[in-house]
Amino acid sequence: MKRRDLEKRLRIAGCYLKREGGVHSLWINPKNGVIEAVPRHKEIKDALARKILKSLDAE
After folding, report:
1. Which residue of 18, 22, 29, 34 has the fewest C-beta atoms within 10 A of its own C-beta?
2. pLDDT tens digits, residue range 20-56?
3. Helix or strand run (H / E) with residue 7
4. Residues in a beta bridge with 17
């Protein structure tokens, strides 16, 4: 999955970017307070993308 597509799905679900790191970006879901690291690669493996979306309740 493309990183921008993953970020778009996170934004639609109400998540927002908390801060940028060196290799990861931290996204937070304010509804449940969960913070998840998203790698800063152009392409993210589908299994990892599903795990991030599930963890942030953005499925």
Report:
1. 22
2. 998 999 999 999 999 999 999 999 999 999 999 999 9
3. helix 3-12
4. 27
Q: For the chain, what's the residue count?
A: 59
**Count of alpha carbons within 13 Å of 55, Cβ hemisphere only?**
14
How far does Cα 6 stand from its chain's mean position? 6
Q: Reply yes or no on whether the pLDDT at 6 is more than 90.
A: yes
Confirm if 23 and 39 have CB atoms less than 8 A apart: yes
Long-range contacts of 38-41 (CB under 8 A, 24+ apart): 38/3, 38/6, 38/7, 38/10, 39/3, 40/3, 41/3
